[in-house]
Amino acid sequence: MIPVAQPNDPSPLSKEEIAFATKSLREIGRGIVDQQPKAQAAQLLAKLNAALPAEGAVAAKGFDGLWRQAIGDDVPPMNAAGMTARQSIQECSASSATYQYGGLKRCLEFQHDDLIRDLNVDYWQNQPGS
Asked: How does pLDDT run across 40-53, given as a tens digit for each residue?
């Protein structure tokens, strides 16, 4: 999740900054964030969203149908992460949410980003010295 360098960036990330973020801070993140159900749910939503077509309607309704259509038969377990992902997908499958967010794929992106935002807040609030 390192930002892509932009041609006219006045202060691009240095190799040292990237190493710091991907090594020591990543270890801290692994302990604070990775085991949370929200992190696992975000991974499930990202996997599903990446497998969905970029444009056009998706015929299957509900979690199982969408998951099987995009990913296959390996449906996630009914644990907290799976339930969070299912709830997000069912919200996005509702016609009002699909319309409001500009389609299923876009709605899933919003759901994913909401989970990541919450995890990001948890991460930075639990840093040493914060």
From this structure: 999 889 988 888 87
